[in-house]
Amino acid sequence: MRLNERHLIQLAAVLDTGSVSEAAALLGMTQSAVSRSLSMLEARIEQPLFVRGRRPLQATPLGEQLAIHGRAILAASRHATEAVRGYVTGARGVVRVGGVPFFMDAMISEMIASFHGDEPEVTVEQSYGNLPELTSALEAGLIDLGIVPIGSAHPGPAFDFFELLPGRNIVACRPGHPLMRRARLQAVDLTAFPWIAPLPGSPLMSDLQMILMSIGVSELSIRYSGGSLMSVINFLAGSNALAVLPFSVVFAQRKENRVVVLPYDIPQPNRSLGILRLAGAPRTPAADRLAHHIMHAFDDLRHIIQRHENAVVWGR
To answer: Is the per-residue pLDDT at 122 higher than 90?
Structure first.
């Protein structure tokens, strides 16, 4: 025997409101339509749904059991409606974000946290990668957004790129580093101290090679490599090592006062941090919301970072 789910929902509404007329108003139906549904349900099960002659209406034991299922169906229907509404508006869903490690750890993760405060029903799944891995993940549908610096090696028309922040790299060190006391830094000064190598595959690695060429040396003394952002900061803070980092990453750590900008002006890459997406691919509203949240966060940050950058007295 198969019962009509709508009949069970209407039965539950009648018992919960105490009358057919109020149930009809609740469900947006006519009273006669609800009465017909109840009669059809009784005919289907060949059992009465209500105790005869009782006012307000009182269900028979079988009628009460069926009403329990009707309430469950109604609740499931409402949850489904809320899920659809949440998905369409971007208030619910899953967003998969991949990004370059240092930027994700220093800046984007905090923005994701503030986004979660606004949209607590959205789940964000984050992964790491450089440009080749992120473009492959976007093409395979494994991520929705890529947070990556891009310069002359743009992946092409298959991708949309929205710039968040112009790129600027600096040499970072601890606040009490001996070079911070030099009145005027020379290129040879940078070779007298150990260095931290950028992560393998990071664009910072090519930037470091460009710095080597600009100061006329073939290699630096690399004493640490392969670490996360936190481990790099810990190494810098506890040693006299130097590292090439994005200015914005050091800016994001300014309140900790563990790493600072060494005011030596180094060659700058033609590169910007931005959001990379697959052009023409279906876009979920939740992913759009997160992308706009990050864009607005950088709108506020860009001017503050620029002021801090302008305050540095750069030397050569």
So the answer is: yes
- Nearest Cα neighbor of 122 from 290, 273, 7, 270 is 290
Q: Name the amino acid, one letter, at 118.
A: D
Half-sphere exposure of 124 (CA within 13 A, CB side): 28
Q: Which fold has domain 169-262?
A: D-Maltodextrin-Binding Protein; domain 2 (3.40.190)
Contact 102, 198 (CB under 8 A): no
Can you tell me the distance from the alpha carbon of 144 to that of 284, in angstroms, rounded to the nearest whole number?
8
Options 3.40.50.300, 3.90.1150.10, 3.20.20.70, 3.40.190.10; CATH for 93-166+271-308 is 3.40.190.10
CA 244 to chain centre: 26
% the chain with pLDDT above 90? 50
pLDDT tens by residue, 16-60: 888 889 989 988 999 999 999 999 998 988 999 888 877 778 889
pLDDT at 129 over 70: yes
